[in-house]
Amino acid sequence: MLTTFDMDALRTVVVGTDLGSFSRAAVQLGRSQSAVSMHLKKLEQQTGTVLFRRSGRGLVPTEAGEAFIAYARRIVALNDEAALSMGAAATTASVRLGVPQDFFDDVMPATLRTFSEEYDTVHVDIRAGENHSIAEDVRSGRLDAAIAFYPEGSPAEGETLCRLPMRWLATADTIANLQRDPLPLVLFNHPCLFRQAALAALDASRMRWRAALTTPSLPAIWSALRSGLGIAVRTDHARPDDIVCAGNDGTLPQLPSIELRLLRRPDIGPVADRLAQILRLETLDKVTAGGGNEQPHSPARAAASI
């Protein structure tokens, strides 16, 4: 006789893995720590294998656990889709969206507003992870849909929405008094595509540089520029009014463009796919309408899947 897994236990595994903590999962799901532990123990008994091992103060999946989590995601997603399609109350249904910090003030609110008008009972989980981790989160199913930056001309993955020129950015006062040897840089943490492009351009032109500040926060980048700490590289999108473009006089090396792509998880469900469609439309409207993009992409989806 085949084993029937408990839906609540499967949801616990998915949420705990996504949050990176079963303690946080207990809080989000409104369950006690002992209930969460019972769920994990029950699943290991049913599967007859160890799904998680202790690492420090937390739990990490074993190889068998990783495989089981992939099935758990699909089962929970199908359960929620079925509940929604039949009009059943499904307040625990959840879709997960990844958006770089550059789009928090326009693309994200517009996407959520439109989506909530169609699915007002679906919980949306927003992730603002570092850009390099977004694609992996979509591939692994930790995110349903996302937009992410890619180097121009990199291997096809997802759908290219537009290409945005990278810019040297600083305040007008900083530019007027900029020390160029060595050039003070305000940088994102490694790895970062904008950081890599800036350093590659400077190295190619044999310009010396120094790291004035490093941070994983876009607001911190803007604050550092306002403080006169140096110069940064980003696109024009979401650039504050008091931050201007530098290097137009040819004193700084030319920068490449960067691609903005839409990513969907491989086995995306109908509700999450609708969220991805809305994300696509709002991104095209809010980003390409600003005129800063070099080349809007064809609306057709890229041939290579993520």
Helices and strands, with pairings:
Blueprint: H1 7-19, H2 22-29, H3 33-47, E1 52-55, E2 58-61, H4 63-85, E3 94-98, H5 107-118, E4 123-127, H6 131-139, E5 145-151, E6 159-165, E7 167-170, H7 172-176, E8 183-188, H8 193-204, E9 209-215, H9 218-226, E10 232-234, E11 244-246, E12 257-264, H10 270-287
Parallel strand pairs: 3-4, 3-5, 8-9
Antiparallel strand pairs: 1-2, 5-12, 6-12, 7-10, 7-11
Helix pairs in contact: 1-2, 1-3, 1-4, 5-10
Textual characterization of the structure:
It contains ten helices and twelve strands. The strands form four sheets. The chain has a five-stranded mixed sheet with strand order 4-3-5-12-6, with helices on both faces. The protein has helices spanning 7-19, 22-29, 33-47, 63-85, 107-118, 131-139, 172-176, 193-204, 218-226, 270-287; strands at 52-55, 58-61, 94-98, 123-127, 145-151, 159-165, 167-170, 183-188, 209-215, 232-234, 244-246, 257-264. Helix 1 (7-19) crosses helix 3 (33-47).
Quick take:
The chain is of the alpha/beta class and 306 residues long. Helix content is 41%, strand content 21%. It is built from 10 helices and 12 strands.
